[in-house]
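Here is one chain, start to finish.
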Amino acid sequence: MTDTDSPDGRVPLLGQLAGEGWFMNMGEVAATTSLTWLAADPGLRAAILAHLGIRAGTDLTGVEQLLPESVHEDRSRPDIAMLDSDGRTIALVEAKFSAPLTDEQLAAYLDILDRRSGPHRGALFVLVPSSREAEAQRTLQRTINARSQTVAHAVITWDEWLTVWAGVAEESRDPVLAGDLRQLRAMCHTLGGHVIPPLTDTATGRGWQERAGDLAKIVDAVTARFLGSLSPRDLPMQGNLGAKPWMRYRYLPMISQETWVQVGAWGRFADEGLTPFWLMLHKDDKGSGGFQAALQRLMASELSRKVRRDDGHAWVPLEVPGDAGEPELVEVLATKVSTVLGILKP
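Its structure:
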């Protein structure tokens, strides 16, 4: 039996509900609020504070309360604030499943610690699924390095946090507590399971067939940034998982009259050991001249050495790091697409 299963093999109720779209929209809030409620238990609170203190090399024994979603003067809202008996902020926790994690967000929390930690050293934790651990480490360290402020910090995974608490429940032999934790772990397991893990070798084409579904989801997420009020049905047809050669693409709004671009994943390029993600400038079937004008701008840019001509179209590779998880990967691709669009537009 896994940690998310009930004794009869069923997935606990919250694990099933977490897979529903309406629940997923507020899943992060539900999970972090659950952490603060459960932390009212002295045994659970002491155990997690001891663990976090060791991970960050700091003393958290003064924490008396875990407060969810506290709003601060700058309108920032860390997911969990750890307060002492006088209401001073000893530590902050920023929790994520699939939402982006930005330098600006973490910098705002460092400012809060600077203002409100009083005599405490202050600590900042980022709580993420295992698939985002490396990304969170990079973002947190980059933000810390950009400041002269010294602050204890660590990246914690949801599974790590809940495993600490599972040990407490096992020792206490409290069936109600064990049931609550099983429900929470099932919910977090489902929410974290929707986050696409790093592509690793698939970023250079290897094993793309096993990650075809992930590639399709990433394309959908990236192109949604550029569609605005348009839906995919308003634009020319798109590829699908059954296309031969395999492809998944969406057209973006026109560059100019009869000048179209599409962003997608192409298995035939991945088979060559190249990135699966490409932006394609569609060839000019009607002779309007828009394609040639856009192509001239592209070939006059620094991207010209990477442009590939195939089947009359012009293709620009969208190379991505193999260690980037879904939110970071979508940001990288969206930035690259914006750069190419900026070159193509008149």
